[in-house]
């Protein structure tokens, strides 16, 4: 008897890629806590909205090379809100290596299309409409966490303007303050050792 089969059938590349993707999905959650994943989701979404706006700018001046005929002008104005333009913009939303980004665009492409064709006149701010209000991965500035609660010190001036609110603008974090070095305390109203107060009332403090 000779040795066993000389060669096993090779694994099809698609199956290998799917296995790799599945493995990544299985490995990803333990590596990042829920709060970190929420922060990442928001920054991914912010990146998508930024790239979308960049794509809008990049395709805005598209024309047929000057001296457009009437027919071309008509075509151009159609292009402005066309599916072709949308597809061009969507193609450039994510770097191919950015798994989170590609995943988010794929998962929510229908929302983006709906916005493009029906809602962008009424809700011109894609970040706000998409990331905050529709897929709910970000919060308005000065708020944090799953329910977008106000940061310590209030959403107008988180941490009384003397520090950073944990999770500010994302669905993660706990709203606590990391104070600038001159300040301390839960609300960043107290002066650190070696710093002295020059102004202090209920809402403002200068050290
Ligand atoms: C606290 O001080 C700030 C800065 O001088 C001032 O603008 C604000 O009106 C003051 N607030 C109160 C409640 O006195």
From TrEMBL:
Instruction: Name which cysteines form disulfide bonds.
Output: 179-188
Q: Does the keyword Disulfide bond apply?
A: yes
| Cleavable signal peptide | 1-33
Asked if the keyword Disulfide bond belongs to this entry, the reply reads yes
Keyword entries, A-Z: Disulfide bond, EGF-like domain, Signal
Domain (EGF-like) spans 147-189
Name of the protein: CRE2B protein
Which source organism does the UniProt entry give?
Larus smithsonianus (American herring gull)
Q: Give the taxonomic lineage as stored in the record.
A: Eukaryota, Metazoa, Chordata, Craniata, Vertebrata
Q: Which gene encodes it?
A: Creld2b
């Amino acid at each position: 008897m000779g040795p066993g089969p000389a060669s096993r059938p090779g694994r099809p590349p698609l199956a290998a890629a799917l296995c790799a993707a599945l493995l990544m999905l299985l490995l990803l959650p333990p590596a990042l806590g829920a709060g970190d994943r929420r922060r990442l989701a928001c920054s991914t979404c912010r990146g998508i909205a930024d790239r979308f706006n960049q794509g809008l700018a990049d395709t805005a001046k598209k024309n047929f090379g000057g001296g457009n005929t009437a027919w071309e002008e008509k075509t151009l104005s159609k292009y402005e809100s066309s599916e072709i333009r949308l597809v061009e913009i969507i193609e450039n939303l994510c770097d191919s290596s950015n798994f989170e980004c590609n995943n988010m665009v794929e998962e929510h492409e229908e929302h983006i299309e709906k916005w493009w064709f029906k809602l962008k006149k009424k809700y011109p701010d894609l970040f706000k409409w998409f990331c905050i209000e529709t897929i709910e991965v970000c919060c308005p500035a000065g708020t944090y966490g799953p329910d977008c609660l106000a940061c310590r010190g209030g959403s107008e001036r988180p941490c009384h303007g003397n520090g950073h609110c944990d999770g500010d603008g994302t669905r993660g974090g706990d709203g606590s303050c990391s104070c600038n070095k001159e300040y301390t305390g839960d609300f960043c109203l107290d002066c650190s050792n070696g710093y002295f107060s020059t102004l202090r009332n209920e809402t403002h403090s200068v050290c």
